[in-house]
């Protein structure tokens, strides 16, 4: 009897053990993920702390930026480029403003000119064929002579205020003492023209005035941008003009007055600036090749003065 009881008790214990073991294996997968999730936190909690201010793991010192010296050089270069662009834009804006102001002044002069001159009808009948025409002292105010052929025409002391002479051919024409206030002579061919003591408050952009005689002429307020005055004579001329990129190589400018002249990129190579007035180093510096021009000591402007021309020895 006792043996039977012991055997039954052993069977019951074995069955309970099997049930417990089975139930434990079924619950284990549910617990395992929790334990797995806890591991990183625990590892992080026990991991050594990085020193304060140190970069995150995997990043180079300085947050991945270039070394400070190189970075400063790059910033300086960028600033210089921006400043250079700004200066060029400001200079271009000033030039445009200056040109516009002078254009407005000439327009006011043009608007103040009275009805067309009394000789305009007679000259218009010539259909712009004025070669060698004798038109001294003619009243040709506001006349349209654009693209006219006026080669060697005599227009001495002519009244040409407000006239349109753009792209006209005035090669060797005589305009001594003529009044061209408010006239337009853009692109005209005036090589060798005689303009002594003429009044030229004009628009003369791209005008060819090579070898022209402008001694004593008044060009105050004129726009001579990109005009060609190589070998021209401007002794005693009043040059308060807009001379942007004007070619004055080998020009005779002795005694000229440069009050209010704009000389950006004006070419003075080999020109004669002796005895000029109202010309400063600040005006000259934006020009080009001026160091080769003959000029007084006060216009050395930090450059050596050219050698004076040698006088031929007497026989």
Written description of the protein model:
Helices cover about 30% and strands about 0% of the residues. By secondary structure, it is mostly helical. Among the domains are: about 130-215, Pectate Lyase C-like; about 235-305, no CATH class. It is globular, with a radius of gyration of 45 Å. About 35% of the residues are buried.
Outline of the structure:
This protein has 315 residues and is mainly α.
* Rg, nearest Å: 45 Å
Cα shape: globular
Span between termini: 169 Å
Q: Summarize model confidence as the mean pLDDT.
A: 82
Largest β sheet strand count, sense and barrel closure: none
Q: Assess the beta-strand content as a share of residues.
A: under 5%
Q: Return the string of H and E elements.
A: HHHH
By CATH, the topology of the domain at 132-213 is Pectate Lyase C-like
What are the main properties of this structure?
Pectate Lyase C-like; 315 residues; single chain; mainly alpha
List the helices and strands and how they pair.
Elements lengths: L1 H45 L21 H44 L8 H5 L156 H4 L31
């Amino acid at each position: 009897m006792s043996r039977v009881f012991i055997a039954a008790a052993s069977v019951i214990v074995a069955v309970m053990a099997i049930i417990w073991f089975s139930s434990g294996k079924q619950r284990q997968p549910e617990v395992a993920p929790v334990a797995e999730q806890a591991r990183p936190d625990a590892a992080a909690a026990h991991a050594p702390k990085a020193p304060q201010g140190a970069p995150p793991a995997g990043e180079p010192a300085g947050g991945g930026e270039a070394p400070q010296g190189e970075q400063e050089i790059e910033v300086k270069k960028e600033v210089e480029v921006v400043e250079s662009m700004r200066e060029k834009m400001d200079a271009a804006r000033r030039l445009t403003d200056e040109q516009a102001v002078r254009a407005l002044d000439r327009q006011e002069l043009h608007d103040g000119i009275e009805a067309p001159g009394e000789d305009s009808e007679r000259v218009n009948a010539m259909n712009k064929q004025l070669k060698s025409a004798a038109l001294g002292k003619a009243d040709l105010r506001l006349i349209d002579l654009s693209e006219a052929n006026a080669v060697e025409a005599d227009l001495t002391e002519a009244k040409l205020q407000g006239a349109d002479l753009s792209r006209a051919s005035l090669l060797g024409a005589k305009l001594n003492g003529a009044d061209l206030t408010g006239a337009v002579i853009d692109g005209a061919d005036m090589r060798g023209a005689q303009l002594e003591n003429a009044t030229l408050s004009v628009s003369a952009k791209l005008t060819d005035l090579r070898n022209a005689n402008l001694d004593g002429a008044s060009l105050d307020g004129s726009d001579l941008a990109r005009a060609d005055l190589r070998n021209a004579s401007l002794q005693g001329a009043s040059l308060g003009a807009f001379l942007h990129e004007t070619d004055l190589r080998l020009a005779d400018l002795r005694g000229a007055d440069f009050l209010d002249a704009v000389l950006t990129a004006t070419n003075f190579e080999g020109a004669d600036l002796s005895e000029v007035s109202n010309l400063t180093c600040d005006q000259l510096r934006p020009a080009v090749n001026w160091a080769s021009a003959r000029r007084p000591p006060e216009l050395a402007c930090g450059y050596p003065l050219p050698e004076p021309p040698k006088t031929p020895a007497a026989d």
